[in-house]
Write a structure and sequence with these properties.
The structure holds 2 protein chains of 2 kinds.
Chain A lengths: L4 E3 L2 E4 L5 E6 L6 E7 L5 E8 L2 E5 L1 H5 L1 E4 L6 E5 L8 E8 L7 E2 L3 E5 L1
Parallel strand pairs in A: 2-11
Antiparallel strand pairs in A: 1-3, 3-8, 4-5, 4-9, 5-6, 7-8, 9-10, 9-11
Chain B lengths: L3 E2 L4 E5 L4 E7 L6 E7 L6 E7 L4 E4 L2 E6 L4 E6 L8 E8 L7 E3 L3 E6 L1
Parallel strand pairs in B: 2-11
Antiparallel strand pairs in B: 1-3, 3-8, 4-5, 4-9, 6-7, 7-8, 9-10, 9-11
The chains are: A mainly beta, B mainly beta.
Chain lengths: 113, 113
């Protein structure tokens, strides 16, 4: 069973609203990833962190998405102004960072109406 | 663009047969290759992985074959069983702390009794 905890499991927002989802990585994992699985089943990498620092992020994340992984608090991914095209399954994953094996949470399914 | 591609979105195999799932990648720098399994409404879990210093790895009924010159890797499942029915995602990336994985879209394997 996955030890990466994501909340909420389901999220419904109107266009233009903020959408925020949270992730508690597996204990002891310093590296956290966010992926978006869209309706075409494409896994799109969004952003990753090592401890509290951003390692990599894509352009989309830089503009409308904000993410953070504060110490002693859950990581979060927030969409500032939701658009219909943001409707997707958002998966958080964590790893030890020594290799690229990652462990996924169950995801937050966002629906923007 | 899609850095990792699974050209066949679905595959049906008779129970007891061999399931073969294929994956192509674009980035010459990738040196880590993995297969994840995903049941409906559940998170992907790592099945088997291989690093670029080998061209084959076996684990029980699973074998990963890596063809670096062809930028291709595959998963073979022998003695396929109905419980193998799931979506299989291939992933590739570069070793190194925090390096992101690029995923294929997934392929639905159905093992019929």
């Amino acid at each position: 069973n996955s030890k990466v905890i994501q909340t909420p499991r389901y999220l419904v927002k109107g266009q233009g609203q903020k959408a925020k989802m949270r992730c508690i990585p597996e204990k002891g994992h310093p590296v956290v990833f966010w992926y978006q699985q869209n309706k075409n089943n494409e896994f799109k990498f969004l952003i990753n962190f090592q401890n509290q620092e951003v390692l990599q992020q894509i352009d989309m994340t830089e503009k409308r998405f904000s993410a953070e992984c504060p110490s002693n608090s859950p990581c979060s991914l927030e969409i500032q102004s939701s658009e219909a095209g943001d409707s997707a399954l958002y998966l958080c994953a964590s790893s030890l960072g020594k290799n690229t094996e990652v462990f996924f949470g169950k995801g937050t399914r966002l629906t923007v109406v | 663009g899609q850095q990792v591609k699974q050209s066949s979105p679905s595959l049906t195999v008779q129970e007891g047969g061999i399931s073969i799932l294929n994956c192509d990648y674009e980035n010459d720098m990738f040196d880590y290759f993995a297969w994840y399994k995903k049941y409906p409404d559940n998170s992907p879990t790592l099945l088997i992985s291989v690093r670029s210093n080998v061209d084959k790895r076996e684990d029980g009924r699973l074998t990963v074959f890596l063809n670096k010159s062809g930028k291709h890797f595959s998963l073979h499942i022998t003695a396929s069983q109905p419980e193998d029915t799931a979506v299989y995602l291939c992933a590739a990336g570069q070793q190194g702390t925090g390096s992101k994985l690029s995923f294929g879209k997934g392929a639905k394997l159905t093992v019929s009794p």
